[in-house]
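Reviewer 2 asked us to include a model.

Predict the structure of this chain.
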Amino acid sequence: MDESDESSRLTAHFEEHRSHLRAVSYRMLGSLSEADDAVQEAWLRLNRSDTGDVENLGGWLTTVVSRVCLNMLRSRESRREHSMDVYPTDPAVSREDAVDPEQEAVLADSVGLALLVVLDTLTPAERLAFVLHDLFAVPFDEIAPMIEKSPAATRQLASRARRRVKGAPPAPDADLTLRRGVVDAFLAATRGGSFDALVTLLHPDVVLKADPAVGPTPAPILLTGAVTVAKAAMAAMQRAQSTRPALVDGSVGLAMAPLGRLRLVLRFTIEDGLITEIDVVAKPERLGALDLAVLDA
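Predicted model (structure tokens):
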């Protein structure tokens, strides 16, 4: 077989697996541009490798793209605090603005943005073990060499990640349903710019507290009163587009995760159907301490 025929064969085989590799990469990374970068790197490695004796090319490519994603996640961990600090003043901190935001939003919704938010709280090894095993049915003995762990240790990582995804025991169903209704209404009013509707959801003496990282000043934010808090929410309309309900310490809250990256969380105190307090969490150490989980539809 001449060189052009071999190249055509490799290209055809790779294209057969491209959609699967992109799906794995997106769930691993939560970013469409980074997922495409990982898939491209897998293609480059395929072209540089002798795969003549590889019987399962799909499995080989899944391993390659998973290792690429693992390295990207570890690199992200090292710069996470910096990226968290710069985000509030510069929403376009990365090259991901080259990706169509609508395409990214549709993909995030199809995967489940809440799931991506929770995955973003896991360590790189936990995320890889959970995504490959629970979402793509890759056996633990195939995952273990990627993270240099034994199959038993890899199983434990996936189990730990699974517990994080499920989260703490939620509030009683009736209470959770009530809170979900209030939080959904708050998010809808904020996205739609419905100031009057927002005010009706807030207690007249509502208090909003926010970490310094949320605003343009280095001081914590403290706002009181329904009108004042509603005005602040209206100023965050753009951020609300990448915000979704999630379980926060077993109760309903909101998580903002543009491109699947957790940036801030809103915790609500609700009494008699009205929001009495909003705690906006953005500091990395506070976000890391929260028990976030996927909220059932």
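The CA atoms of residues 3 and 9 lie 10 Å apart. The first helix runs from residue 3 to 29. We have added this to the supplementary material.
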